[in-house]
Each structure stands twice: as C-alpha cells, then as structure tokens.
Amino acid sequence: MLVGFAEALAAPEAAFCLAEHGYRVVAFTRRGSRPALAASRRVEVVEVTAPEDDADACVRDIADAVERHRPVAVLPLDDHALWACSRKDLPVPLAGPTGERARFALDKRDQIAAALAAGLAVPGGEGAGPWFVKPALAVVEHEGRLLRPTGALARDEDEIEALTARIDGPVLVQRVVSGVGEGVFGFATASGVGAFSGHRRIRMMNPRGSGSSACRSVPVPDELRDAAERLMEGIGWRGLFMVELLRDQDGTAWFMEVNGRAWGSMALAVRRGYPYPVWAVRQALDPAFAPEPPEGPPELLCRHLGRELVHLLAVLRGASGADAGRWPGRGETLRAMLPRRGDRWYNWRRGEAGVFLRDTYETVAGQIRSRT
Questions:
Q1: Of 150, 173, 201, 312, which has the fewest Cβ atoms less than 10 A away?
Q2: What is the fold, at CATH topology level, of the domain defined by 2-104?
Q3: How far apart are CA 308 and CA 185, in angstroms?
Q4: Are 40 and 58 spatial neighbours (Cβ–Cβ below 8 Å)?
Q5: In this structure, are residues 185 and 276 in contact, taking their beta carbons and an 8 Å threshold?
Q6: How does pLDDT run across 146-177, given as a tens digit for each residue?
Q7: What pTM, to 2 d.p., does this model score?
Q8: Is the CB of residue 280 less than 8 Å from the CB of residue 239?
Q9: At what angle do helices 353-371 and 305-317 cross, to 10 degrees?
Q10: pLDDT digit string, tens, across residues 208-236
C-alpha cells in the first residue's frame, strides 16, 4: 500500500491499521520533512516534492513512487494528497474519491449545498456577527504551488472585506457558532451507507478552538445517521467519510464540513474495531465490497499525548481579555488530564515507541516554534 502524506495527523493510525491487516505500507512525505512515521519499524517512508513548492512535480513524484513500489492501491490521507492523487490517472486503484467526488471533498460550497438538501443545519452569513471568513476550497493551486488558505474571525463588514481580499480564492462567510465538536463517521457502498460510528471532543489542543487533544466515542443519534445517509447518497459517495459537526448549547448540531479522506481521530475508530482505511482499500480493489462493522464495539476515550501537553501548557500559561472568563482552570485541567485505566493513546503500538515519542515531540515543538 502507498499512503500519504506521512505527516498527516491520521497517517500513523492509518498505516498501522493497514500493516496489522497484512499490508506492506509505504508512505510518501514532503522532501526534507521529519514525519513521526519515519521512526517506524514496519513502514517505509519515501520523499516527494512538497506540493507547496511545486504542485506538478509533486504529482509526478507520487506517480513515480507508484511505478517504483507497485502498490495494490493508493490511499490519500489529507487534502493535499487527495488533490495530488486525483490529478493524474494512476495505474493502480485510488482508495479515495476521484472526479466529481474529489471536487466535492475539496469544495465546501458543494458540501454546504448537499448538507442543506439533506436537512442539516448550516450556519449562514446573515444576522449579527461575529462571523468566520474562511476559504471555500480546502487547497488552492496558485502559480504552480498548492496552498492551504486559512480563515479568521471578523467583527464587522470592513473586516469581512479585508479577510475576503486576503484569501486566495472563493470564501464562505458564516455566523460564529459556539459548541462542542462532534463527528459522524461512516462508509458508503453501492448497497448503501453504513458502518456508522461517532466521537465528541473532550478537550482541544488550543482551548480557544482547534483540533481535539482528547475525544470520546458516542452513539450516533438516529436523526444524524439519517441525515448523513441522505447527504452521502445524494452525491453518490463511495468509501470512508466523516461529517464534522458543532453542537451548540441548545442541542442543535451544526454542519461544518465533510472529510472525504482519513480524519484526525482515526485512532478512536480503529481501536473500536472500525478499520476504515482497510475497508477503503478493499473497496478500491472490489467495488462490490461491503464492510462488516463490529457488534457491540467498546466505548473509549482516546488521547493524543502531544496535543494534551500543548493544551496543558496553554492552560498553565493562562488567558487574558475575552478568554479569561471561560478559560479552563489549572487545577480542574490537571485533574482531568491524569491518565486513567482504559484510556487509549493516538499512535501508540507495541514495538513502535519511536513513532509515539517523535510524534509527541514534534507536536509540542511545532507549537512552540509557531509562537516564537
């Protein structure tokens, strides 16, 4: 199996999952990077041109890696890889979206239209602010380089205009919604959408709002299951997917986006017996494949050590201004973060401590570097 990018958050879990099911895994990484998977004993890492430097060269290098390693399939693990792998007809199956499905996975405008048609609540741009101005495209090709624009908060129309001008490409303006992040995971086949599982964020790396550092498995409510099924069937999806949501204090689950590739909390799904990456490969090799989800999977809490440490450092540093009143307390945080029997850790496998330790170090060091 060829997978990538190796520095994607889901990369170690996806690679380990495939290796545990008998695949020899090769992961492509940006030239000169130091992904945690490079410390693995059972995953080979090969370098390609970074798409941020030369998008076309990256596509060629991935195609060359396919020719050299002859994988049974290629599994894109993040938006950059999805874009690159869908730009060229590879001589092996792609265990991910292609054509119109790939465009859907990378364009939030299409996702919002499909979510509204499926009956999901979507934040609009009407009403009083603040608003979040964000790129409509997950990645943008600009002057031969693949960029990932970022959004920001706008408190008035002048800020909306300034942020819109700064983002390279189409934008979305949405009213800010406060709540707790949730995810609905599933797998779509020719015979229907199923193998649902879900998570809820317990803590975020940045208490102001960011990716989760700890998440817990939760049952998927019938209404969300039905809406996700309508959404994915409506666009003819195949394979793994995640519907990202934000549940507010009134209980409304607001649609954020669809991840049409592996997602960050893959560790939680895999630990519960949902090997979504393996299912994606099997479907790529046999379009009639339909997974058999586990019966009575365990309910788990899964934690990312590096992100947990970043969260703890943020809390110990304290907050000021508007954040001061809602910042987590130091004592409360320390008690909540004590390891408990039954906790599971992202990217931990027996015999692969090097991956776990490097991932933890690079996560914390990366956050420190970004602040300095």
A1: 150
A2: Rossmann fold (3.40.50)
A3: 23
A4: no
A5: yes
A6: 999 889 999 999 999 999 999 888 999 999 99
A7: 0.94
A8: yes
A9: 30
A10: 777 889 999 999 999 999 999 999 999 99
